[in-house]
Amino acid sequence: MKTLFLLPFFFSLVYFLSDKAECYSHKKNTISQNKHEIAAIYPADSSKNKENPVIPGDFADPSIIRQGDMYYASGTSSEWAPHYPLFQSTNLLQWQQIGYVFSKTPSWASASFWAPELFYHNGMYYVYYVARKKSDGISCIGVATSQDPAKGFTDHGILLEFGKEAIDPFVMEDSGKLYITWKAYGLDQRPIEILGSRLSNDGLKVEGEPFMLLRDDEKKGLEGQCLVKRNGYYYLFYSVGNCCGGGCSYQVAVARSASLKGPYVRFSNNPILSQTEDWKCTGHGTIVTSKEGKDFYLYHAYSKTDGVYTGRQGMLAAVTWDAQTGWPYIQPLGEKVAIKKNFRDDFSKDSLSGAWQWDFRHTQPDYKVKEGKLYLSGKTAADNLTGTALTVRPLSGDYEITTVIVNYNASLKGLVLYGDAGQSVGIGIKNNTVQIWEVKNQKRMILAEEEIRVKMPLQLKMKIDKGYQCRFYWSEEGKNWTEIKTGSDYYNAGFLPPWDRSPRPGLMQQGVVAEPAVFSFFTIINQ
């Protein structure tokens, strides 16, 4: 049994809704608000709204379902553990994180935990997910089940291997039969295809020969699909372009067919969702339908202000259907300014808050929470020049992080902005010396250091602007701060973002396990 990593830490966010259809993959849906509240939230022309994320911060490739009065959503965790953050909501407006799909890495998998697909069938919750095999690094689709997402998932291993990779699963039920679709040939010298195949009645085996739904003959990119059946047509929503990073070009398009197996005809007015005034590279979502019959599309996008430094954030849109042609339209939502929650962990609980994640490929953290303190050390891989880092998702590009270190030893202990084990920067104390350090191009360098003569505890602070402009401070009492300069007005951490995820701030220790870092609190204040 893969037990769910339960969270005392919850994200609560304020947002906005709208319109209609039925997602045929048994993605049932509901909004626990009265009709007057829904009407007030759903304006006549929501395209004029200033849209905001419903799940801010790095939350790519989201999947959403409803069962009863509860919505569940999960998204890509990539190289962070625990794997696949799991959120719930009763109204699509306020979301809280209840844990992770996997608290431990599945035994067969090594990396790249992408694009989870949530599904409900015959009293069972499923997650179809992507990861790389340990044996050869090929991305495959696995499956896990649970009777209650809040009580843990059981992994059933690899469901589907196909060529050089099989990614982006989507599952639906059609006429009492289960089907899975996926992206194929993305690493081959041929057009990408969206393929489909039958699943066994229990959803745990692939049966029969695969069939093609759509092919990328123009070689623009094709992935992140979702299927909806409505009024005799199967509507295939998909993403085109480059998904990730500064050069992303994602857009959402749609095609339809009178048969699940095609042929599919592309909509002449594609794309149906593209960049807006404040957001770009929109795509890779799924559709959920409320009890009131309204359809919503949960997808990801980059903020044009914060860009890669906050990652692909969870966005919400209304799906409406043309009464004459039947084709869908997508309208991003969010007239009000989202409430961005600050986070403080004073380590007062018996276990580590579920807000924390780490790079599981490069470190095995050794931590305990005891009497209001976090004790942190860990075993690191040979190519890890950073040390052990526990990190949280930044919700904006402008924020401050602060901590208090209460112990003295030869380990480096402090704050970190972590892109990867070979891409990081931070401030820490080692013995009685405060250091500003960087790991860049697989080299570690001390940028500045200052010997101090103060008694522990010691407070450290990093101020980040625009996601990459870093400044470093220390204080004895937390009121008067001393800045340590790195040679210019700010340190440029623009090299940190990996191609598919945002850098993350947090706590770090570099040294032997027997000399842990001891922290009494951590805060992140979003500006």
Automatic annotation (TrEMBL):
Active site: residue positions: 61 (proton acceptor), 223 (proton donor)
Domain Beta-xylosidase C-terminal Concanavalin A-like: 344-489
Site feature (Important for catalytic activity, responsible for pKa modulation of the active site Glu and correct orientation of both the proton donor and substrate) residues: 168
Example of a GO MF term: hydrolase activity, hydrolyzing O-glycosyl compounds
Pfam family, one: GH43_C2
Gene Ontology biological process terms from the UniProt entry: carbohydrate metabolic process
Keywords: Glycosidase, Hydrolase
Family: Belongs to the glycosyl hydrolase 43 family.
Name recorded for this polypeptide: Beta-xylosidase
